[in-house]
């Protein structure tokens, strides 16, 4: 009786140990070739998404830094007719706002509508630069879960194929490859999609903040030109 209990306890411990040693690597390896290809594609998409996020994040962060005294200096230079000094200040300040103001300063002397149009055109170019490759994140956010679901379909086909060839004798081990493929690719696709979606929205919020900042400074500059001499 004692030996039977010890034997069953030993088997239970072995089962628990086997369950604990199941890792993500094992899930991917046991998922078959189809699952491994899907996972590899998702890993590449994740790497691309993270690269774009961090590259754009630091670029937008740099673009949002504007010296608080910048507009005060511009006002002083323009009011005193020192347009060359104002233009030099804009060129030495590497921010979208400074480039917009510099574009406006280079048009001083022309009608206000022309200055406004020049600033708006320059602003569109700056926004385009800020949003460069951000749309790729949105694409990854939508495509990654679908690729994961494609892996799910492939896994279910593999499982059904195993059942069809089992001749009425279904063994769970025969279905494991298909089930692993179905589950792991779905989870991986959702994880990549969620990460891409969150990073995309974060970049959109930060980009909008810079755009509002550019608009505010541009209006401030145009108001300066509208002030009576």
TrEMBL record:
Pfam families cross-referenced by the UniProt entry: MotA_ExbB
Record-level GO cellular component terms: plasma membrane
Primary location group: membrane
InterPro entries: ExbB/TolQ_transport (IPR050790), MotA_ExbB_proton_chnl (IPR002898)
GO biological process terms, semicolon-separated: protein import
Bilayer topology term: Multi-pass membrane protein
Spans through the membrane: 33-54, 134-160, 180-200
Subcellular location: Cell membrane; Membrane
Annotated ranges, domain MotA/TolQ/ExbB proton channel: 94-215
Highest rank taxon of the organism: Bacteria
Keyword Membrane part of the UniProt annotation: yes
Keyword entries, A-Z: Cell membrane, Membrane, Protein transport, Transmembrane, Transmembrane helix, Transport
Family: Belongs to the exbB/tolQ family.
Full protein name: Biopolymer transporter ExbB
Organism, scientific name: Polaribacter glomeratus
């Amino acid at each position: 009786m004692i030996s039977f209990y010890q034997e069953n306890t030993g088997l239970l411990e072995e089962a628990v140990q086997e369950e604990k040693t199941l890792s993500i690597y094992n899930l991917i390896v046991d998922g078959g070739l189809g699952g491994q290809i899907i996972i590899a594609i998702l890993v590449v998409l994740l790497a691309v998404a993270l690269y774009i996020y961090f590259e754009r994040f630091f670029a937008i962060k740099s673009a949002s830094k504007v010296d608080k005294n910048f507009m005060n200096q511009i006002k002083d230079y323009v009011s005193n007719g020192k347009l060359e000094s104002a233009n030099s200040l804009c060129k030495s300040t590497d921010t979208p706002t400074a480039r917009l103001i510099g574009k406006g300063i280079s048009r001083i002397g022309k009608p206000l509508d022309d200055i406004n149009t020049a600033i708006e055109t320059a602003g569109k170019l700056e926004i385009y630069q800020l949003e460069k490759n951000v749309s790729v994140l949105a694409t990854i956010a939508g495509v990654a879960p679908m690729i994961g679901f494609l892996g799910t379909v492939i896994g279910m086909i593999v499982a059904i194929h195993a059942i069809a060839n089992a001749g009425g004798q279904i063994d769970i081990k025969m279905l494991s490859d298909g089930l692993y493929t179905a589950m792991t690719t779905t989870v991986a696709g959702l994880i990549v999609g969620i990460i891409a979606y969150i990073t995309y929205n974060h970049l959109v919020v930060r980009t909008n903040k810079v755009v509002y900042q550019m608009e505010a400074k541009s209006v401030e500059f145009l108001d300066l030109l509208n002030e009576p001499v």
